[in-house]
Amino acid sequence: MKTIGLIGGMSWESTTSYYQALNQGIKQRLGGLHSAKICLYSVDFDEIEKLQHKGQWNKTAEILASAAKSVEAGGADFILICTNTMHKVAPEIASAVSIPLLHIADATAEQLQKDGVKKVGLLGTNFTMEQDFYKGRLTDNFSIDVVVPEQADRETVHQIIYQELCLGAICDASRDKYLQIIDKLLVQGAEAVILGCTEIALLVQPQHTSAKLYDTTEIHAKAAIDMALASDNLIQCE
């Protein structure tokens, strides 16, 4: 089994979801007392968040590249960035280490293609919804059309992420707002909706809507499990 390197803490609430999903997934695949081999570097999100909103992405890249080097030195065989937004600096992080980086957008797009989804709605931070580092990857590399909410709704989604979900606050009223926005994406022709921020799945889950939801944390973790067990001689449970 390969060791999974995690760059987490953005926020720590969603990083715990990664840790749980990875360990549960390994146990389901292998049975017994098996658990995932993980090397985690958790950053201080307050520092990252301030730099994000100042547009100082080069400094965030330096912090996460240093974290990636530490994870590699700790024995990781490949790396996951446990946040959609910080994939904006994924190229800088990948170039700082000699081990592979498993990109969250690639894992999500591969699942969308497998399911035959050609047009998808995207929820996330303003950075993820408005900039091309995520949307462009889906469109250019996987030929998937991406639709995002209108400007006012994008601001609502963004503010709920940073002012509530990243602080561990789950509010029914905010869920209702998200569900209304999801309905609008479906009207725009989206066949499914990407929960493109690792915090959103803490608020919106499949039982809340008839829309097909793609939880990027769950998808990313599953892809990591596949990678960790690839070419492994351990017998997997059926």
UniProtKB/TrEMBL annotation:
Keywords: Isomerase. GO terms for molecular function: amino-acid racemase activity. Pfam families: Asp_Glu_race. PANTHER family: ASPARTATE-GLUTAMATE RACEMASE FAMILY (PTHR21198:SF7), GLUTAMATE RACEMASE (PTHR21198). Belongs to the aspartate/glutamate racemases family. This is Aspartate racemase. It comes from Pelagibaculum spongiae.
